[in-house]
Amino acid sequence: MLKVTLGPSKEVEFADETLVQMGESILRTKKAERGFALCYSGNQILPGKEHVGGRSSISYKDCGRAPKAGSFHTHPRDGDSEPSWYDGFGSLHNGWSRSVQWITCTGSPKDMTVRCHAPRDVPDGLTVKVIGKDKRKMHGKPMSADKRFDELHQELARFRVRDLPKLVSRDILPRAGIRVEDVSFAGSKGPSKYRKYITETGEVISVEPIDQGT
Ligand SMILES: [Zn+2]
């Protein structure tokens, strides 16, 4: 679970399932974008069903009757997790049209990172219109290329896939394609035990000692 504050004071939580599904989508991303809606259940953010889109666009099904909090999508191939200009603009546009602080999370297998941002406040129509005028000019540029976003947006969260074991309860990790394996080594002071977190491709993303007490 990851608690964040949606500026200035709205406390929301990304549920374990949501964080794990982000990791899962990143690990599975090859040529096509993957993504899903972020749905509110009280102050919890739950994941919608995952969808596979084109290389640079994806459409999301809704959250049923639950209000939408935003969306997550991956950047395939050369893109890293940095949001594009369009991702930044999308947060403003969706936020304005739905009167919410629309959360956009992006992730990439290149840096194995998830980043989430949202407008600091519900955007107003004039701001969206003025920024929208630069749509063509900003095509293909990252969000950081437009300094206006620094003031309008806040970064809510940034974490690496390898940090997932620290963020979520262990039982849910296999769903992200992360295997949990306990190993022990014989040592002079008796065996020491470690817990390994391994992805589907066999990459060990984290190893931590298991506290055996005294
Ligand atoms: Zn994007």
Largest sheet, in brief, is:
9 strands, mixed
> How confident is the prediction overall: mean pLDDT?
90
Count the E strands.
Answer: 12
Rg: 19 Å
* Percent in strands: 25-35%
CATH topology of the largest domain: Cytidine Deaminase, domain 2
- Summing up helix and strand content along with how strands pair, one would put the structural category as alpha+beta
Q: Would you mind describing this structure in some detail?
A:
- By secondary structure, the chain is of the alpha+beta class.
- The chain folds into two domains: 2-167, Cytidine Deaminase, domain 2, CATH 3.40.140; 178-209, no CATH class.
- Helices cover 21% and strands 34% of the residues.
- It contains five helices and twelve strands.
- The strands form two sheets. Strands 1, 2, 3, 4, 5, 6, 7, 8 and 9 form a nine-stranded mixed sheet that branches. A three-stranded antiparallel sheet has the order 10-11-12, with no helix packed on it.
- Strand 11 (192-198) and strand 12 (204-209) form a beta hairpin.
- Helix 2 (85-98) packs antiparallel against helix 3 (125-132).
- It is elongated and about 70 Å long.
- The model has no long low-confidence stretch (mean pLDDT 90).
- The structure holds zinc ion (ZN).
- Zinc ion binds at residues 73, 75, 83-84, 87, 106.
- The site of zinc ion has 6 residues, from loops.
Keywords:
Cytidine Deaminase, domain 2; 34% strand; 3-stranded antiparallel beta sheet; 5 helices
Quick overview of this protein structure:
By secondary structure, the protein is of the alpha+beta class. The chain contains five helices and twelve strands.
